[in-house]
Design goal:
- The two termini are 34 Å apart.
- With 154 residues, the chain is an alpha+beta fold.
- It folds into two domains: 88 residues, OB fold (Dihydrolipoamide Acetyltransferase, E2P), CATH 2.40.50.140; 52 residues, no CATH class.
- A hairpin with a 6-residue loop joins strand 6 and strand 7.
Length: 154
């Protein structure tokens, strides 16, 4: 991938595909000091990222935060991002690779969208076979997943 076969090898274990690696490399040209990572948790003050070796915390750069907010968007678990360290060795998310797919729903107020997860290969839908089993609910979940272009395992 981009002439450096080992550059992304650690990220392959957490889902990096050749297509995403190409997108990461293209985006990284604008951020030469940045390295790729995957969002594993979103927090108010930032995000928890994983680089294929270890998880670590990072804050979202104000410029990226403004761009995301202007688009009515936000980081989501599963996003691929570029992260750079400042002079104090604090990690900052400086850019996001456009997601391949996203599972999202209406927000609590019904005005906008809330992203649940991004870059999903498959969704496992599990239902108990007790008194709470509801075939219509399962059908809604299947429709929800398929609308995002994600395969479902029931």
């Amino acid at each position: 991938m981009s002439g450096e076969p080992d550059r992304h090898s650690a990220l392959q274990s957490i889902g990096l595909t050749p297509a995403v690696a190409r997108a990461v490399d293209a985006l990284a040209q604008g951020h030469p000091a940045a390295r790729p990572a995957r969002v594993v948790e979103v927090q108010r003050s930032g995000a928890r990222l994983h680089d294929g070796r270890a998880a670590f915390g990072a804050r979202v750069a104000p410029r990226l935060q403004q761009v995301l907010q202007a688009d009515g968007d936000a980081l989501a678990v599963g996003d691929w991002v570029l992260v750079a360290d400042d002079a104090h060795r604090d990690a900052w998310v400086v850019d996001r690779v456009p997601p391949i797919n996203r599972l999202e729903r209406r927000d609590a107020l019904g005005h906008g969208r809330q992203v649940i997860v991004a870059n999903v290969d498959a969704a496992m839908l599990v239902c108990g076979l007790d008194h709470d089993f509801n075939l219509r609910r399962l059908d809604r979940y299947l429709a929800f997943v398929r609308m995002a272009g994600v395969g479902a395992l029931v």
